[in-house]
Amino acid sequence: MIGKSVALSLLLVTLVCARNAQAGVLDDAAERYRPYAIEGIGSALSGARDLRARVAAKDLSGARKAWLSARAGWERSEVFTAGFVPELDALIDAWPNADSGFHTIEAKLFGAGQTDVEADTDALVRNLDELHGKLRNMALPPQGLLDGTVRLAYEIGESKADGGEARISGTSLEDMRNNLAGVEFAYRTVFEGALKAADAGLAESVTRRIEQLKTIVAARDLPHVDVRALRRSSEELVVALQAASVKLGLRRPTLEAQSR
């Protein structure tokens, strides 16, 4: 009886040690995501500053190009924005009821053909600059990054396939591509190595679904995107990543952003 108790205790200790070691591996991997986050928001900030200059010069064509550039950097970063900085996310990228940020500016530049967005552009630069400054010391827990990866993978198939947020500027397909680039980078940088060690078959399943999505969004324009295949592959990726959470010792992600 005593021997069985000792064996059980040793097993529990072994399991706890293994779980702690896995957590350490993921924490280290999450730090490797930080430069990507800094670069993405830095790119958005650079584009927003150029946008401000173009707006001041009443250069509509240049302002539109700068908006598109800023938008690309933001879309690559959405793995972490809603969950880690919800207040700034709401100021920068609120939709559909936007009274600030990208979509307020988009409506005037692309919809009305106007450049009277000085105050909105100043606010966008200010908010992106604040976020860029926070990123060097912001905690990046693996759970939060997995939650954001799953949420964004779902969003690609469900809210952007029919035109999504950027109907006025017509960038929804490019948004999906940038979102997917963010999803892929987060997965490969933070989770793929640990998942391969725990369940190589499941890791391959995640990779296969990412590649399927990349093929789908490589369509030449939005009308040529196979929407049914997009939604199916998006949902399959979500399910695979949710299954991966168990193997990684993390909680099962939900589809709602959780503040960190």
From TrEMBL:
It comes from the Bacteria. The keyword Hydrolase does not apply. The keyword Transport does not apply. Residues 31-98, 100-220 form the Imelysin-like domain. InterPro entries: EfeM/EfeO_iron_uptake (IPR050894), Imelysin-like (IPR018976), Imelysin-like_EfeO/Algp7 (IPR034981), Imelysin_sf (IPR038352). Its main location: other. It is found in: Cell envelope. Residues 1-23 form the signal peptide. One of its GO terms (cellular component) is cell envelope. Keywords: Signal. Belongs to the EfeM/EfeO family. This is Imelysin. It comes from Bradyrhizobium erythrophlei.
